[in-house]
Amino acid sequence: METILFLAHTEADGTLGKAGLESLSAAKTLAATLAGSQLVVGLVGADVQAAANQIAGSGATRFLGVAGADFSQARYSSDVIAAEALGKTAAATIIIGPATSRWNRVMAGAAQRLGGRIDTHVTGLSAVDGKPAVTRWYYRQRMEGVLTRTQRPWIVLLESGCSAAWSGSAGSTTIELLPVALPAQRTTVTGVQAPASDAQTIRPDAKLLFVAGAGWTKKQADGQAHPDEAEKIILSFLGKAKASLGSTKSLVDLSGEGQAVLKFMTHMNQIGQTGATPRHPKGLATCCHGEEPHTVGWRFINERRAINLNPACSWAQGKADVLYVADSFAVMSKVNELLASK
Ligand SMILES: Cc1cc2nc3c(=O)[nH]c(=O)nc-3n(C[C@H](O)[C@H](O)[C@H](O)COP(=O)(O)OP(=O)(O)OC[C@H]3O[C@@H](n4cnc5c(N)ncnc54)[C@H](O)[C@@H]3O)c2cc1C
Fold first, then answer.
1. Cβ–ligand 1 contact at 309 (below 6 Å)
2. 323 Cβ below 6 A of ligand 1
3. Where are the domains of the chain?
4. Whose CA is nearest to atom 2 of ligand 1?
5. Contact present, 304 and 319 (Cβ < 8 Å)
6. What homologous superfamily does CATH list for 208-340?
């Protein structure tokens, strides 16, 4: 019998975000699968009542909270104490939370304080022979492992997009607020500095992955390279379609070679064997040859299309559902025009 603590922090508006709701549905399903288990909710935030009401219909047997101005923002030294208090009070044997940047930073420390173990980057939860098990990918998403642990408490951080978000009914809930005394804090959170959401090109929740390859910076039919035009076309498309931007290794490596580059592109955008393996329903590759070390990073992209001048490019070898043999500059300019007129 397990006591499963769903542990989440509230968002700026006091409610639970999508990643939190996904973890809740995974925790609830696990609790229902493991005979005799119970689900407890633990919330951290400035005020946790709205979040507790939001998930009143989750079937949790207890709602615990750590609330106050000190817990409104991400800060290791206060978050770790809140997580520890909630884990202990719930007498949790399994703690499931979303793999947000806030929790990713703090939960290993909480596991240490609780004398437990932690698995991060988990992509699924299940029961194997009546025992809880988690799924993780290894070796750059090539091997999937299913593992169980005997140590308790066992903290599990679930990646976003791996479970349906819980969508049950709201209500009103009574929360047991824990009195948590913080030692003198050396760190004061004065605010958050982040790029404007439009400047952020990596968008894990986007419906479309837009990949730009090195072709965007290569000499075109007129014998000239047009990186400035490429930059305008790509940024305009990303702004309109709210797509996530991926790249090939060749393109992100070009800056090191002193060649004309797309200035907003970094190694963080690289998709492939030595890059990322994102999850999006659709992908569109432009000016990208589609070589194996790149396309291996497309394994979780369901519907794939590519635009390439070369009908014999690697996308044509069964790697894309649709290959448009065309000029990406022309096609994407037309797409932008159509999107602008919508
Ligand atoms: C160990 C190892 C690991 C690697 N890991 C990765 C990785 O993680 N990710 C990765 O991406 N690569 C990786 N690579 C590199 C990979 O093999 C390719 O070299 C790279 O993906 C090629 O990038 P590209 O398609 O952008 O460039 P190119 O091969 O130069 O292709 C450019 C394409 O653009 C097309 N093009 C040009 N102009 C236009 C136009 N106007 N319209 C339409 N099409 C046009 C051309 O026809 C061409 O097909 C790795 C290689 C090795 C050896």
1. yes
2. no
3. 3-177, 208-340
4. 293
5. yes
6. TPP-binding domain (3.40.50.1220)
Contact criterion met (CB below 8 Å) for 93 and 2: yes
Task: For residue range 67-105, list pLDDT tens digits in order.
Answer: 999 999 999 999 999 999 999 999 999 999 999 999 999
- Mean residue pLDDT across the chain: 94
- Give whole-number Cα distances, 332 to 118, 197, 250, 263, 337, in Å: 45, 22, 21, 19, 8
Pairwise CA distance, residues 141 & 178, whole Å:
40
Quote the tokens at residue 126. Answer: 């299940």
Rg of the chain over Cα atoms, rounded to whole angstroms, equals 23
Contact by Cβ (8 Å): 97, 6:
yes
φ/ψ of 157, rounded to 5, equals: -105, 120
Q: Does 319 contact ligand 1 (Cβ within 6 A)?
A: no
How many residues can be counted in the chain? 342
For residue 271, give the DSSP letter.
Answer: B
Distance of CA 172 to the CA centre of its chain: 30
Q: Which CATH superfamily is domain 3-177 in?
A: HUPs (3.40.50.620)
The count of C-alpha atoms lying within 13 angstroms of the C-alpha of 315, restricted to the half-sphere facing its C-beta, is 26
329 close to ligand 1 (CB < 6 Angstrom): yes
Token pair recorded at residue 145: 């492992």
Of 297, 294, 208, 209, residue with least CA distance to 251: 294
Domains 3-177 and 208-340 equal at CATH topology level: yes
Sequence letter at residue 109: G
Q: How far is the CA of 250 from the centre of ligand 1 (A)?
A: 6
In percent, how much of the chain has pLDDT > 70?
A: 97
pTM, two decimals, is 0.75
C-beta 246 within 6 A of ligand 1: no
Place of tokens 């986007």: 206
Residues 6+ apart with CB under 8 A from 254: 214, 217, 260, 261
